[in-house]
Amino acid sequence: xxxxxxxxxxxxxxxxxxxxxxxxxxxxxxxxxxxxxxxxxxxxxxxxxxxxxxxxxxxxxxxxxxxxxxxxxxxxxxxxxxxxxxxxxxxxxxxxxxxxxxxxxxxxxxxxxxxxxxxxxxxxxxxxxxxxxxxxxxxxxxxxxxxxxxxxxxxxxxxxxxxxxxxxxxxxxxx
Length: 175
What we know:
Layout: H1 2-28, H2 36-53, H3 64-84, H4 91-123, H5 129-148, H6 158-173
Helix pairs in contact: 1-2, 1-3, 1-4, 2-3, 3-4, 4-5, 4-6, 5-6
Keywords: Membrane, Transmembrane, Transmembrane helix
Family: Belongs to the YggT family.
Protein name: YggT family protein
């Protein structure tokens, strides 16, 4: 029963954390605000981010209010998991684990966005708002790699290189 509850809590928090991190990433890469995906993300996060923005201004393109909200959600996840597993809620370990959860979720989100973009590219049949959004979200990661490793015979290896780097980083932080 405890494993099932831990799974449910972790999954629900992770899903919302990814939506918050998607908002941070969309603003960083200047994704189309009027895309339906963007509109969903903004509407799902605006109640809290709107309040936080009154106290935490953006730093250039970095949406610091959303980033702080994501870290808070990561810390809440750590506190919930510590508590569910009977460890109490030690402050410093919970904060560190919460930040690691947030970074891991960001890396995981980017990994899945790249995978989905790669798969959709095989079946692309013209303009699609979802595909356009995926392109906007991944191109800042892929373009620098393409400058170093150009497409070989029509095969773009940049996606593979970025996926390997993201997975390496996830393993490195150990979450």
